[in-house]
Amino acid sequence: MSTKRNRAITLLSLGHACVDVYQGAVAALVPFFVAERAYGYAAASGVVLAASLLSSVVQPLFGALTDRWAMPWLLPLSALTGGAGVALSGVMDSYALTLAVVAVSGIGVAAYHPEAARAARAAAHGSHTAMGWFSLGGNVGFALAPLLVAAVVATGGLGATPLLVAPAVVGAALCAAAVRSAGSRGGAVGKGEDTGSDDWGSFLRLSGAVVCRSIVFVGLSAFVSLYVRQRTGGGAVAGTAALCVLYVGGAVGTVAGGRLADRYGRLAVARQAYVLTGLAVAGVVVVPGPGVYLFVALTSAGLYVPFSLHVTLGQDYLPRRVGTASGVTLGLTVSVGGLFAPVVGALADATSLRTSLAALIALPALGRLLLCGLREPAPPAGAAPAPGSSGHRPRAASA
Q1: 114: Cβ–Cβ under 8 A, 6 or more apart, which residues?
Q2: Does residue 191 carry a pLDDT above 70?
Q3: Can you give the pTM of this predicted structure?
Q4: Which of 36, 27, 47, 43 is nearest to 227 (CA)?
């Protein structure tokens, strides 16, 4: 890539990190809500639901809008909105107001992803590795969230959450710089010009697999900290460490996924990642003591290796609706996992955290089954054919 495009990818990746801090921050705040406000598991998971519900509803809308118009100004605005909601969450006087401001944060995150993914796709020019770096930015934001929340809230209590607005301000500046770097509609943040037919059947099957991945990820994000505290007999540090492992492992998995896909093909890599995830979640549930951290790390790798591959596959299955595809694969299906967080929490209240997490084991297997019937789509115009691609438009194959 040219220096200008390298700069655009770098700025977009850093901005992505700042925005996705607020997806990770919501889960990281759950133990503090439990401790300071005596929330039950179901009530605590309701906070995760609030961050996901409106985000899930509006994400396709933002995707459809970016399919019609380039809206680079949306990037810095959405970064600020995402940060403001989380910053206010700890100082609201009631549960209802807490849910409301967290929901506002979810809307900001939803607005960001379709336009940002379009920008990254344009700058990447078909490189799965470049898209992996963009996705890595978001995963780094997730990874930093528990540390940031712990540093702020553990020392100042929930009343210190306004300090958490800082990444949003930095992210807005980075996004504005990315827009200036692109310079025009034809730059990195411009509207794509892919042509070809949309393969909705393959896209919907892919989306179903990503939903399975999302439920596992959100369920673990919300409760792995509390679970590891119970499992190891450790305190807050043990739980925060587990959440950090879940997120940091994703940083490695995302970059590895892009490189492996450039070599072996996206679908082949994604299918194996789902197998690894199922086995690793089982390990989290059954392995006692400190050994649980190893399986949290393996689960993280399995969940994150296909993360950027889902995005580019979705974009290639819907070449005429790249914004919609990006909003769904990068945002909606991820947010949908939050809709199931109260179910996981309610099951934990009725039985135990271990039982509720054990129920997640079946989902990677279902996701793997959905991927069985897909073929590698043709690459975007101007990109080299992907491994495993026939160069023709994709169609669903029999499993």
Answers
A1: 59, 62, 63, 65, 66, 323, 324, 326, 327, 330, 331
A2: no
A3: 0.71
A4: 27
